[in-house]
Specification:
By secondary structure, this protein is an alpha+beta fold. It is built from six helices and 25 strands. It has four domains: 122 residues, no CATH class; 82 residues, Elongation Factor Tu (Ef-tu), domain 3, CATH 2.40.30.170; 62 residues, RNA polymerase II/Efflux pump adaptor protein, barrel-sandwich hybrid domain (OB fold (Dihydrolipoamide Acetyltransferase, E2P)), CATH 2.40.50; 76 residues. A hairpin with a 4-residue loop joins strand 14 and strand 15. The radius of gyration is 34 Å and the shape is elongated. The two termini are 39 Å apart. One of its GO terms (cellular component) is outer membrane-bounded periplasmic space.
Length: 357
């Protein structure tokens, strides 16, 4: 697949339909507008079309792992870039406040069990006609209250990071522990590990991030003049062919910005790739006859990228699709070489041409 889009030399018929007639300027007018011409020169045969890029998490695929309690990091169980499964331990904290929360759950669980047993007993006595129905109603209210208190204590522990399975072990062992193992909330890769053993962390402080490795995107800042080589839905190579990605978006050029953001989604996971790591987006190179122009020769007109060609009848805007690095643009097409192209005063030339329409 060749990402290089050819420079389109537009026929006079096309120009008459898409643009107004050529703009005829005298030498004095050209000088006043700062218009300078240069003959089109051949560039090297290799035309670069790969741009520096970085991996980034896909929207909604990044999870921040933190703790709701202040504590001390006792062990870090993973390393940067490690693949983990949901529920796997990531690090261990010593959280003194966890002791009181665990005791609260144990007490609430005991009260709930006693209240449930009392309710069963009162219902049996009522069935035997030994007590009034009021006693059963009171026992039902007591059991409901105790159950609600147990749920509240369990929720508080869950918010502190103690999973349902860990709470069940606590209830079966009846033994409190200030150690809290922070577990992975999803399968993915560890990224942005921010803590080390012995470090004290505050409540809600970010500890690390988990990224779904199968949902990485690639983002590149592409020179505005070259953005036309990318289109939504297009398959493009990543890392000089190490992987393939599908272009998701090509941002519109904003004002006089020299570059636009191109984002693409990896088709499959790439071993070792992590958010923030650098790569390339696009083909490394392609062999093609090409022509080189200063970046100043390219402008935007009616939503198209154009250069102004000096013809016998005046200046004509010619639509191009070019690849540039911010200083020069390199294009390929049916040029013979030597054609005169405006390389300065292009903005003024464009404004004058629009005024004549």
């Amino acid at each position: 697949m060749n990402l290089l889009l050819k420079l389109a030399l537009v026929s006079p018929c096309w120009l008459s339909m898409a643009f107004a007639a050529d703009l005829n300027l005298t030498p004095a007018q050209m000088q006043a507008l700062g218009v300078r011409l240069e003959p089109l020169q051949a560039a090297s045969s290799t035309l670069q079309s790969a741009y520096p890029a970085r991996f980034m998490p896909a929207p909604g695929q990044e999870r921040v792992i933190s703790t709701m309690q202040e504590g001390l990091v006792s062990r870090v169980l993973v390393v940067e870039g490690q693949s983990v499964k949901a529920g796997q331990g990531l690090l261990e904290l010593q959280v003194p406040a966890l002791l009181d929360q665990q005791l609260a759950l144990l007490k609430a669980n005991s009260r709930a069990q006693l209240a449930k047993a009392a309710l069963l007993r009162y219902r049996q006595l009522l069935a035997e006609g030994l007590i009034a129905g009021k006693k059963v109603i009171e026992a039902e209210a007591e059991a409901a209250t105790a159950e609600a208190e147990e749920r509240a204590a369990s929720t508080a522990l869950r918010l502190s990071g103690l999973s349902a399975a860990q709470q069940q072990r606590l209830l079966s062992r009846q033994q409190v522990d200030s150690g809290l193992v922070i577990q992975a909330t999803q399968s993915g890769q560890v990224a942005g590990l921010k803590v080390t053993p012995g470090q004290r962390v505050q409540a809600a402080e970010e500890l690390l991030r988990l990224i779904s490795a199968s949902s990485l995107w690639v983002e590149a800042d592409v020179p505005a003049a070259a953005a036309g080589i990318f289109r939504s839905g297009q398959s493009v190579p990543v890392g000089n062919g190490a992987a393939e990605a599908v272009v998701v978006s090509v941002a519109a050029q904003s004002g006089n910005a020299q570059s636009v953001k191109v984002r693409a989604r990896l088709k499959s996971s790439l071993p070792g790739a992590l958010p923030g790591m650098t790569t390339t987006l696009g083909e490394a190179s392609a062999q093609s006859a090409s022509w080189q122009l200063p970046q100043t020769a390219v402008t935007r007109l009616d939503g198209k990228t154009v250069v102004f060609l000096k013809a016998a009848t005046g200046f004509a805007p010619v639509e191009v699709q070019a690849i540039g690095d911010g200083r020069t643009v390199r294009v390929s097409g049916a040029f013979k070489g030597g054609e005169l192209i405006a390389v300065s005063g292009v903005t003024a030339l464009r404004n004058a041409w629009q005024a004549e329409r």
